[in-house]
Structures are given as C-alpha cells and as structure tokens.
Design goal:
With about 350 residues, the protein is α/β, with parallel strands linked by helices. It contains twelve helices and twelve strands. Strands 7-8-9-6-5-4-3-2-1-10-11-12 form a twelve-stranded mixed β-sheet. Helix 2 packs parallel to helix 3 (about 95-100), helix 3 packs parallel to helix 4 (about 120-130) and helix 4 runs parallel beside helix 6.
Length: about 350
C-alpha cells in the first residue's frame, strides 16, 4: 500500500494539510457564466459581449462532478456548496442537486448541500431545487436602493425581483437563508444599517463581506475596504450586538447576535482579519481545476484525471495527496504577495 493510499484511508479528522487543517468544505463551480456584471466581480469592461466563456464540452459533466464529490466526501468533506458564475444558469442544475443529495459520508450522513446565487432565477427554480435535495441558499443583496442595485449589477436588474427570489426560497423551505452584502467604500457603506434593519427579525442571516482582491479585473484598492470592525461599530451604535459562538469550526463569518433577540449578522473579514489558520475549503472550477485557496493562481487538473478513466480510489488518492501538501495562507501574507503574482478571477474559481 502506497503512502498516499494510507493518507486517503484515514478518518476525516486525520486528513490534514501541511498546517494541520482538515478538508471539510468543497465549493463546486458549475459555470463561469453570469447574467449580472457586478462591478466587484465581473466588470462589463472585461466581461463584455466579446468575452469568451467556456464551451459546454469544457465543463465537468454532472456525472464527473458527482464522482469527484463522492471522493471528497469519503475524505471528510461534509459540506458541498454549488457556485458559479451564476449556478442557476447551468441547464438541468436540479439533476446535479439530486445526484449530490444522494451522497453519504462514511458514517451515513447527508452532507450539507447549499447553493450561492444572485437570486434572479429562484422564483422559477426554488421549489424544484428543494425537491431535488438542496438544503439552503445564499443570495447576494448589495444595496436596498434600486437605482444603486442596478448600477452594481450593471445590467439594470431590479431589486424587487431579487426579493421575489428570497421569498420563493423561503416558501420552498430553502433556509435558513443567508444574505451576502459586499461593502465597498464610496459605493454602499452608507447602507450598512439599512441592510441590517431590513433583515432583522426575518429569520434570514445577513453577512457583510469585506471587498476582496480576488482576481485582477475589479480594480481593488485597500482604501476601498470597509473593515468589519467599522461595520460592527456602526450597527452596534443603533442596535446593540454581542458576539455569538461559531456554529461550525472553520467557518468564514464571525457571528454577532442582536441583544434584543432579533436575530444575528455575520462579518467576513478576509482582508482585515485573515482566517487562513482555520480554512478547511477547497474549490473546483467549472472546467475541473481544483484550487486549495480562493486567492490561488494555479490548480490541479481533475478533469484530465477523470476523463482518463480514473476510478473512485484514484481520485481519492489524488485529492489526499494534494491536500497533504497544501500550505496556502494568502490573506496572512497579503502585504508581501498581493502585487507579486497572478490570481484567478472569482467568476472562474467560484466564491
């Protein structure tokens, strides 16, 4: 038995990377396409009409995604998140959800199965997604002002239709729903309190995300970042908050709850509060490259492995070997690395 096979057969608590971090979360991009052109992710001047997206033949098929997901779950992954681009643009996405919902962990549990979306297609997709086995969704809402919201998505999509999507997801039982808001200085920092108040008492969890330097096309500058600490101070001055314990080891968001019991918010401090030390996430791009860091510049080609006829154990061994040497900690090294290497665009790697 090879050393990598011995690694692969360790229990989930035993598979760790070079810094002792387990593999628990797998984020799977199913398309690089999106119907929005959000200025912080897929700016129109880069992703315009002439931009060449992947051909369908380049994308992992649902059968290939299932094969890789089963291997990852056998290694200890207990959370699968479907991302994009906009994942609801992938034709037949409900079929993929059904396949993934049938996977079981070594002790017989169904992994947590979630999907991140802009919400546009949820009014027609939510019920089918729930029936297929999806547990919950995360939806992006970066502004409560319709004009500003249309400017941010840069395709004129109305805010009201995203709220229709949120309502459809709630009606279908895809909850608790998480609402993501990327806050950028000079764009929407004045909406921190209004956003908090809009979702207080709804049962939905609002998460504020620091504007990140993912990729090279969004014009990121440190001065554009609104620190999470500032966001918390701003909300606390109006609606007192207190820290809440983490729901799960290694989660990206720091949780805060309202003292009056009206729910909670989260902050994701990927710039000002690096959480590399507890990161348990890997990401698979739509064309089958696996990345061990959101800020990576190079992946491992799983698609080639799968299309060469690799069986379950071969994929397990490859994933275990890759994870065993993982040493990523970009957010901790941002100051020394940010200008010195390429980075993959978020629309390619998934959020």
């Amino acid at each position: 038995m090879t050393s990598q096979r011995r690694i692969a057969q360790l229990p989930s608590t035993g598979l760790v990377d070079a810094r002792g971090r387990g593999l628990r979360d797998l984020r799977i991009s199913v398309t690089d396409r999106c119907n929005f052109r959000c200025v912080y992710c897929m700016p129109k001047e880069i992703f315009g009409r002439d931009y060449q997206f992947m051909e369908r033949s380049e994308l992992l098929t649902f059968e290939e995604i299932e094969l890789v997901a089963r291997a990852a779950v056998s290694l200890g992954v207990d959370k699968l998140r479907i991302t994009g681009g906009e994942p609801l643009l992938r034709r037949g996405i409900e079929d993929l959800i059904e396949r993934l919902a049938a996977i079981r962990t070594p002790d017989g549990r169904k992994p947590d199965l979630a999907l991140t979306t802009n919400g546009a297609a949820l009014p027609v997709k939510a019920a089918a997604l729930k029936a297929a086995g999806l547990d919950r969704v995360t939806i992006s809402v970066d502004s409560l002002d319709d004009t500003k919201f249309r400017e941010i998505n840069d395709v004129g999509f109305p805010l009201s239709r995203v709220f229709d999507g949120i309502a459809s997801a709630a009606d279908a039982g895809l909850g608790p729903i998480k609402i993501n808001a990327v806050i950028k200085r000079g764009v929407n920092e004045s909406e921190v309190v209004p956003l908090a108040e809009r979702f207080r008492g709804t049962g939905h969890t609002l998460r504020f995300i620091e504007y990140m330097d993912v990729g090279a096309s969004n014009g990121w500058r440190l001065d554009d970042v609104v620190p999470s600490a500032e966001i918390i101070r701003t909300i606390h001055a109006v609606h007192p908050l207190e820290r809440a314990s983490a729901a799960r080891a290694g989660e990206t968001a720091v949780r805060w709850k309202y003292r009056d019991g009206a729910g909670e918010i989260g902050v994701i401090s990927s710039v000002t509060g690096a959480f590399c030390g507890t990161c348990t996430r890997a990401r698979i791009s739509a064309d089958g490259q696996i990345f061990t860091c959101l800020f990576a510049y190079r992946g491992f080609d799983l698609r080639a492995l799968v299309r060469d006829g690799a069986d379950h154990q071969t994929i397990v061994d490859a994933l275990a070997k890759l994870w065993a040497v993982r040493d990523d900690r970009y957010s901790e090294q941002r100051a020394e690395l940010s200008g010195s290497r390429e980075r993959i665009e978020m629309s390619y790697i998934g959020g």
